[in-house]
Amino acid sequence: MDILRKIQQHREDERRLKWEGTFSEYLDIIRERPEVAQSAHSRVYNMIKDAGIDEVDGKRSYSFFSEELYGLEEAIERLVEEYFHPAAKRLDVRKRILLLMGPVSGGKSTLVTVLKRGLEKYSHEDSGAVYAIKGCPMHEDPLHLIPHHLRDEFHEEYGIRIEGSLSPLNVMRLEQEYGGRIEDVMIERIFFNEDKRTGIGTFSPSDPKSQDIADLTGSIDFSTIAEFGSESDPRAYRFDGELNKANRGMMEFQEMLKCDEKFLWHLLSLTQEGNFKAGRFALISADELVVAHTNEAEYRSFISNKKNEALHSRIIVMPVPYNLKVSQEERIYEKMIRESDVADVHIAPHALRVAAIFSILTRLKDTNRQGVDLVKKMRLYDGEIVEGFNQVDVDELHKEHSDEGMSGIDPRYVINRISSTIIRKEVPSINALDVLRSLKDGLDQHASISKEDKERYMNFISIARKEYDEIAKKEVQKAFVYSYEESAKTLMDNYLDNVEAYCNKNKLRDPLTGEEMSPDDKLMRSIEEQIGISENAKKAFREEILIRISAYARKGKKFDYNSHERLREAIQKKLFADLKDVVKITTSSKTPNENQLKKINEVIARLIDEHGYNSISANELLRYVGSLLNR
Ligand SMILES: Nc1ncnc2c1ncn2[C@@H]1O[C@H](COP(=O)(O)OP(=O)(O)O)[C@@H](O)[C@H]1O
Ligand SMILES: [Mg+2]
Description:
The protein is α/β, with parallel strands linked by helices. Helix 25 (565-588) crosses helix 27.
């Protein structure tokens, strides 16, 4: 039983990591590993950094987030560099509440969850170890035990700066349990765990009238007041609010701006001064990262309210927009489906891609840039090579609208449409057309779409459909020829040999007979005509290609099938034109003859074995492409 062994292993690991000792023993630990005493913000930053940073073309991507969040590299880079990193260095931003702002289902909660789960794990590692005063409900930092007047000296000796005062409860415990002997106070290693409410807290607003501030800051324990005699005895207080429990780690504040102001003020004092007020006690010091999230509309109405002015300057807003890359959107859907109840349904190749194309188009904003329509912009954003554009152009397009990605269709909507199709269709297989149909039907039911947007969206569905038509045709074509890449390459090499001979006014040598022959104009034209190159323009086109080839050669780059966009298109179209009739006859014949049947079965087998179809979706694809070709 593997799982039982793993559970046992886990228990043993936990036991091995446990540590408890006196404060003086703890000082030995931090003398050797001062990072143990780092602040919560610093721990979060180091956790992110330790997971690894990839840098490509000056853009950083943080592995810590990359398994769960796709296409948000820029937002994350900004978040780390403008918040986590400076906060870890004790700069002023750490005194502000971190507010993630973005559209619904754009990954805000996921981002926070990644941080929480990450901290739980990190606290089990050496570099992320956390120690606390034993038996303290707030897992108070042991260094708070060091009296203020000795802290400068401590800093000199240990290189560690201490912030915050010993909490009223531990002041009392120090006297009563340890007779004031700080060195004897018991310290233990703690492990963050949201379920056990250690170092990780979550607060979500409920009815503002009934919600009690105690949820945040704890409350008097009426059952023990009699025993301790007074409300101001810290032993009669339960330090079990979310702010207490999240001490040393992080607290998530869900839907922060929906919350009553009095809750916000507590948070502000906490982030600003590092302490908050609970019950009748002196201020309680706490060290935690507070992350809140909200949507744009709520945020706008919040800042437009004069009453909230003082709060603004104490919040740092970080945008979390939607992903804008088709390929990453596909990954989001794959992940969401994997985690859902419909994970075992066959989703035909390209079905998710087509949905992703639609979603991304709804999120993009029109550009003023000449020659760039939304589809081209979509390709550029996804890192596709588009002739005549480079990375600088892409960066410029990104800069054109600062609010791009703040609106449009959200991933959850798409997944809901897909699952409802699956459930309704009651078949174990859906394809791109099913998905598009379902997205289209859903637009009527989507509550928050204006009439205008609906029209735009309908148009995007037909664009996505056209993209799919091309993909589908190419897919079938590929399955028909034994090796598509090879055929394309052979045809192109042949074309280039002829072009070279034509431009240099040379002869070609027949590879079989060795005989000299003139360039084959008919072959060249049959390719060029595919992309509308006229007889008059053929010379210029051929020369341009030769120039491109020699430019490649100069740079030591290999000119291949993908080096010239229009040529690639021409070759593909030519191959397809040659095949078209075969495919057309084979796929649309109602009563295929023996030969056709054999070919169809071969193609279907190839679609299944090499392209990820099952027999239902492969047959559907063939039928669809057959009908496209007969239009
Ligand atoms: N960029 C993204 N990368 C990965 N998953 C995403 C992304 N955006 C949204 N999701 C997925 O969409 C769903 C909704 O995201 P969520 O984090 O709840 O959004 P929010 O809190 O912003 O409303 C989740 O399943 C999440 O994993
Ligand atoms: Mg959320």
